[in-house]
Automatic annotation (TrEMBL):
<dbReference type="Pfam" id="PF05698">
    <property type="entry name" value="Trigger_C"/>
</dbReference>
<dbReference type="GO" id="GO:0043335">
    <property type="term" value="P:protein unfolding"/>
</dbReference>
<dbReference type="InterPro" id="IPR036611">
    <property type="entry name" value="Trigger_fac_ribosome-bd_sf"/>
</dbReference>
<dbReference type="GO" id="GO:0043022">
    <property type="term" value="F:ribosome binding"/>
</dbReference>
<protein>
    <recommendedName>
        <fullName>Trigger factor</fullName>
        <ecNumber>5.2.1.8</ecNumber>
    </recommendedName>
</protein>
<keyword id="KW-0131">Cell cycle</keyword>
<dbReference type="GO" id="GO:0051083">
    <property type="term" value="P:'de novo' cotranslational protein folding"/>
</dbReference>
<dbReference type="Pfam" id="PF00254">
    <property type="entry name" value="FKBP_C"/>
</dbReference>
<keyword id="KW-0963">Cytoplasm</keyword>
<dbReference type="InterPro" id="IPR005215">
    <property type="entry name" value="Trig_fac"/>
</dbReference>
<keyword id="KW-0143">Chaperone</keyword>
<feature type="domain" description="PPIase FKBP-type">
    <location>
        <begin position="169"/>
        <end position="248"/>
    </location>
</feature>
<comment type="function">
    <text>Involved in protein export. Acts as a chaperone by maintaining the newly synthesized protein in an open conformation. Functions as a peptidyl-prolyl cis-trans isomerase.</text>
</comment>
<dbReference type="InterPro" id="IPR008880">
    <property type="entry name" value="Trigger_fac_C"/>
</dbReference>
<dbReference type="InterPro" id="IPR027304">
    <property type="entry name" value="Trigger_fact/SurA_dom_sf"/>
</dbReference>
<dbReference type="InterPro" id="IPR001179">
    <property type="entry name" value="PPIase_FKBP_dom"/>
</dbReference>
<dbReference type="Pfam" id="PF05697">
    <property type="entry name" value="Trigger_N"/>
</dbReference>
Amino acid sequence: MQVTETAADGLKRELKIVVPATDLAGRLETYLNDLKGRVQIRGFRPGKVPMGHLKKLYGKSAMADIVNTVIGESSNKALEERNEKSAMQPQVELADADAEKVLDGGVDLAFAIKYEVLPAFELAPTDEIAIERPVADITDAEVDERLSQIGEGARSYEEKAEDAVAEEGDRLTISYLGKLDGEPFEGGADDKAYLFLGQKRFIPGFEEQLVGAKKGDKKVIEVTFPAEYQAPHLAGKPATFDIEVFEIAAPGELKLDDDWAKTLGMDSLEALKGAVRTQIESQYGFQTRQKVKRQLLDALDKQYSFELPPTLVEQEFDIIWRQVAAEMERSGKTFADEDTTEEKAREEYRKIAERRVRLGLVLSKFGEANKVQVTEQELQRALIERARQFPGQERAVFDYYRKDPNALASLQAPVFEEKVVDFLLASVKVTDKTVSKDELFTEDDELAA
């Protein structure tokens, strides 16, 4: 095999690789000899088929498989000998005319590969990185509030007298039809729906106009959708709703006691409180983890500056931009609404893409240098969690990931990243800082993470 570098520009490389025809012919002969003992052809005894006849029947298709194999093997070997790692699968170029000659035999296999190498950089020390781990205390009041929320979901209601009026806390059974400029709009109607006065589940002003209503009432109420309403065609618009009240029910007594806890499968109210506290601790812990990880990534981002593989950046940018475009379409907003332009937005999101690629390469190198690996058990757990997201289709999900190495790698990548983050957090300075619940749950810019 002969390898010649034909282009080198930054991280971009182009090689010309030539594999002698004799090597291909040798592989073909080995293949046909093996086939000779297995194939059954009418008119010939097993193992007695002439080599020329076999070559005539199977030579071209066999050579096609051999060429594909040789291209992959020789490309990998060329990079290995050059001590380079490709950021992505190299792009192979083989002229159609040359391919036909190679398949016919007797002609060297010559092809070009284009690729981008992973950048070379040294890992910086991490012992000077300092991180504050935000920790929020879980109060008894929060546990009690969560218990009350659970209780509200199981509260019973009793129908009130025919002439009773609707009060705060009552449950109304209503039908409604929403209209814009007198015309019904999509998603603005429901029949025999529950409305709980005081829970503010409807748009502002809707529930308040039903306080004092009676069973059998029919009325029209006027409201205005919030300017930030999720449906862009309704945001900020005045609307009317035709309402009919079918039932008014008063809330039954809610006793948060041992008997109630037992209806939820717990031994006692204290046991239920413990389970609720554990659930809240898990939620707080996850949020703390995200905050700590963000600080670590920010610190690493400041330590490194190196050339990035353009194709990796472009792919990451495309993922981000599709996400941004989908969100803007869903919300009905424009770049002007965000006080920017598309050009400026693209520039900012490209910086985010570059950050993601750079940090991905840094974390990958830390993991490789410190022999961080994803175990089979960890990968299996990730696969199970993924399958759980598709109830009833678990078997199909398992089969999909097991048959597609790239898909399986996509499951492994986030597990690997979290293990590398754990490794790095053990080497940096971490101090706890008590914060409020609101501070803990203040959202960071997700795209920049």
